[in-house]
Amino acid sequence: MTDSKALTFPCDFPLKIMGRAAPDFDSLVVEIVLRHVGSVREGAISVRESRGGNYVSVTVTVQAESQDQLDALYRELSGHEQILMVL
Description:
This protein is of the alpha+beta class. Helix content is 30%, strand content 33%.
């Protein structure tokens, strides 16, 4: 039986990263992502503030090359003190 949820690489993979609103939060997220993927396409990054303005989410669609690459990216993002959640 094959796993229908398995990813086929390379593929576009959206990441949603959330944290407390700070002037440099989106730059921090992009800096970490670029260390792992090299570059992102124009329009691949969107930023959204919560209704109250206390939190921000950054969605980045990356060109994922392998599961190991995604795992390393998730580990670094999740381990950063300013990042509250990675989906």
